[in-house]
């Protein structure tokens, strides 16, 4: 009897495709930031990899190329609230579908906790 979970049996390329498809369906094929439904969606790291963000599902959203290029490696909320595409309802939806993810840097462990 094979004790490996079924997803491990998929090839690496199949796993990546399945992961991308799931992320893109979070907003029914629309850009998480501006709401447009382009033919092609790209994956955006909420916390850019260059800023210590990890390549994990909780740090990825599907967005249009326009939003992805515009945001670059800027902090999401700083960029988004200043952009013409800011929408509070979409912001709530993004916040509900992603988790705060750990950063690659061990310095992240020293960040202060929010007040309780």
UniProtKB/TrEMBL annotation:
SMART domains, per database record: HNHc
CDD domains recorded for this chain?
HNHc (cd00085)
Taxonomy, superkingdom: Bacteria
Q: Which Pfam families match?
A: HNH_5
Q: Which InterPro entries match?
A: HNH_5, HNH_nuc, NA-targeting_endonuclease
GO molecular function list: endonuclease activity
Q: Which UniProt keywords apply?
A: Endonuclease, Hydrolase, Nuclease
Q: Which residue intervals define the domain HNH nuclease in the entry?
A: 18-69
Q: What is this protein called?
A: HNH endonuclease
């Amino acid at each position: 009897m094979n004790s490996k979970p079924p997803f491990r049996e998929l090839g690496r390329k199949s796993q990546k495709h399945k992961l991308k498809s799931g992320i893109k369906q979070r907003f029914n094929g629309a850009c998480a930031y501006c709401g447009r439904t382009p033919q092609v969606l790209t994956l955006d790291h909420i916390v850019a990899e260059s800023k210590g963000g990890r390549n994990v599902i909780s740090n990825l959203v599907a967005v249009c190329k326009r939003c992805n290029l515009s945001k670059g490696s800027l902090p999401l909320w700083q960029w988004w609230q200043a952009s013409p595409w800011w929408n509070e309802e979409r912001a709530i939806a993004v916040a509900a579908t992603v988790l705060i993810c750990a950063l690659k840097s061990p310095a992240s462990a020293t960040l202060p906790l929010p007040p309780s």
